[in-house]
Amino acid sequence: MPTAVTIIVPTCNREEELAxxxxxxxxxxxxxxSAEIVICDDGVAMGTRDVLLRDYPSAIxxxxxxxxxxxxxxxxxxxxxxxxxxxxxxxxxxxPAFLAGYLAAIADPRMAGGVLAGxxxxxxxxxxxxxxxxxHFDGPGVLPPSCNFAIPRTVFEASGGFDERxxxxxxxxxxxxxxxxxxxxxxxxxxxxxxxxxxxxxxxRVLARRWESRVISAYDSGAGSLELLWxxxxxxxxxxxxxxxxxxxxxxxxxxxxxxxxxxxxVLACLPGWVMRFRDAPxxxxxxxxxxxxxxxxxxxx
Length: 302
Known about the structure:
Elements: E1 5-11, H1 15-25, E2 35-41, H2 47-55, E3 60-63, H3 69-79, E4 84-88, E5 93-94, H4 98-106, E6 115-123, E7 132-133, E8 148-152, H5 153-159, H6 171-181, E9 186-197, E10 199-200, H7 204-209, H8 212-220, H9 225-242, H10 251-278, H11 285-293
Parallel strand pairs: 1-2, 1-4, 2-3, 6-9
Antiparallel strand pairs: 4-8, 5-9, 6-8, 7-10
């Protein structure tokens, strides 16, 4: 039987998280060969390979390019045989009806040519804490995260896949923004749900590095260097302040404020270097065309 679905799981030195994901995913795979699992391994050590050989030999492992999560996902897509690609992060926990939900939707002709965005629920005892993080997606209206979605192979290839210039963050938001402007519908699929355990907030310097991608996207949208130098810090500050909306003063809030203050000041320190690095870099052809059409994000997304 031809392979109908390839589940692509990018990973990088997270053997325990990957094993927990596969323990729940592998039993859901049909035995008729209609679905396969491809693990894109961006890790340097051989721990992931050993886990797969020992416990999940049916999974196909491919070596990642080690150029960030977008490039790793693209590598998995190139190795896939399925007509549909299901992207699943290595640190999510698929619920029992996860794959059945996708297979039912894929069989529905009304879903042809569109993206299926599965529900992602933040989980863990610290899920309400500012000092812990994970994505959460439980309905339409916002761009979905890339940790749980399905897309026809033809649509993915026509889109060009993930933009590999975004090495640290934002590659999923940019990808879904392109699909939206290209007229590709996104269907929310609650049945294909996963739980995403929260993880400790990384240090301020790691949080700040995520904003580097916004410099690339702002230049793509037609921003000038001077606009970036004042708009991005303002945008970062507003995002940080929004994290505290509806929260009361507490010791946890004070600790989080210290981390986020560090994030803000690291962005200020790094921003001139980012501007120098990317001001003359090649722009996205897609976004250059959108700028000509007047479809660029308001205030360059900042």
